[in-house]
Design brief:
Blueprint lengths: L2 H11 L4 E6 L4 E4 L1 H7 L3 H4 L4 H4 L2 H17 L3 E9 L5 E12 L5 E10 L1 H35 L4 H19 L10 H10 L12 H4 L7 H23 L8 H9 L20 H16 L10 H10 L7 H9 L1 H20 L8
Antiparallel strand pairs: 1-2, 1-5, 3-4, 4-5
Helix pairs in contact: 7-8, 7-12, 7-14, 7-15, 8-11, 10-11, 11-12, 12-13
Length: 360
């Protein structure tokens, strides 16, 4: 062996990462000590061993496809999350970088590559994702629990909550495709507004029954009382948020509770915000909330049809509602109508179910 090649081999042997060379069939022809450590086989066991011996079937297929691509293109390729089976039967996850190996005439004779053990990093990533999922579920449960408080006061709000978040999500997805919003309305934002939109009326728990449940039109004094639900709800969420360190998951919920009755022309309440000074989340929920209120039968009103409700919303474009949000609603009105009909059917089915009784 030439001195330069021997020096090169010594460098490869001292690498912390696994270096290997295989022939065109995938059989080991050279590897360093790190490969032995990773796979747990002896040098004698590994020499000449085919990659199918230490790989799961799915990973062996992945390796074959990569080898084939490297052979055809001559370009280096990478493999991530490659499952290998150690001699003791345990599983390791590797990342590979593979390139072609040729003879002096530059004819392909095999492949060479570098392998990195990413088992611990992958486990940590899986644990992180699982923790995120648990936190997401806990957040969703917390938000739903808070939102349900208003349902206990007003029995008509249960299905209303389900519809509102579906409507808000549809609007957010539609607006995410617009140039003005594509960098702002992320997947996380869409999920946040889906979860948080149901907090819009949480402040109604602080409104007395004589006003909240009054059949018929409210007088001026009663209307001023009902308007307080926006401040009550926003303040309650702000108080909870103040006890949470870091960026709170209640940010959108607080915005929506405070401002979902603001109007595009500045004539809404509780502050009289105008145009884009109204948080986007509240502008979206405003349309979703009004559509649902119009199309739902309540103890003080009959339900409007989808067509009647659509006309009212379109007529209020640019005065009550953000024009972009109304456009998003119109682009998806069939979905709104479908959800409205489906949820109404589910609601009627529940109402028709016999009450449960127990023997005393």
């Amino acid at each position: 062996m030439k001195v330069s090649e021997k020096k090169y081999r010594n460098i490869l042997e001292s690498m912390e990462e696994g270096y290997f060379e295989v022939d065109l069939k995938g059989n080991f022809t050279f590897f360093n000590d790190s490969v032995i450590r990773i796979l747990g086989y002896s040098r004698e066991d590994l020499m000449g061993m085919n990659n199918r011996k230490y790989s799961t079937p799915e990973s062996a297929k992945k390796m074959y496809q990569v080898f084939n691509r490297v052979y055809i293109t001559g370009k280096t390729a990478n493999i991530s999350e490659y499952e290998v089976i150690k001699k003791d039967g345990s599983i390791k996850y590797l990342e590979f970088s593979v390139s072609i190996k040729g003879d002096q005439e530059k004819e392909p004779t095999g492949f060479r590559g570098v392998a990195r053990d990413v088992t611990e990093q992958l486990k940590a990533e899986i644990e992180r994702r699982e923790l995120e999922n648990r936190l997401h579920d806990a957040r969703a449960a917390t938000i739903m629990g808070l939102a349900k408080l208003s349902e206990y006061r007003d029995k008509g709000t249960g299905a209303h909550l389900e519809r509102i978040r579906e409507y808000a999500k549809i609007i957010a997805i539609e607006m995410a495709g617009l140039p003005a919003y594509k960098d702002y309305i992320t997947e996380k934002y869409i999920d946040d507004i889906y979860q948080s939109s149901i907090l819009h009326d949480i402040g109604k728990v602080g409104i007395q029954d004589s006003v909240l449940l009054k059949p018929g039109k409210l007088n001026h004094e009663e209307f001023n009382i009902i308007k307080r639900h926006t401040v009550l709800g926003g303040d309650a969420l702000a108080e909870i948020e103040s006890q949470i360190g870091g960026r709170s998951f209640l940010i959108l919920g607080k915005e929506i509770a405070y401002y979902h009755h603001e109007k595009w022309d500045g004539t809404g309440y509780p502050v009289g915000l105008k145009g884009e000074d109204i948080p986007l989340s509240a502008r979206m929920v405003a349309v979703a909330d009004v559509y649902d209120a119009l199309t739902t039968k309540r103890f003080y009103k009959e339900a409007f049809t989808h067509e009647e409700s659509r006309k009212i919303i379109v007529d209020l474009k640019g005065s009550h509602f953000d024009p972009d949000v109304v456009d998003a609603f119109m682009a998806n009105e069939k979905n709104f109508s479908r959800i409205c009909a489906e949820k109404r059917t589910e609601e009627m089915d529940l109402l028709e179910q016999p009450e449960q009784t127990s023997l005393q």
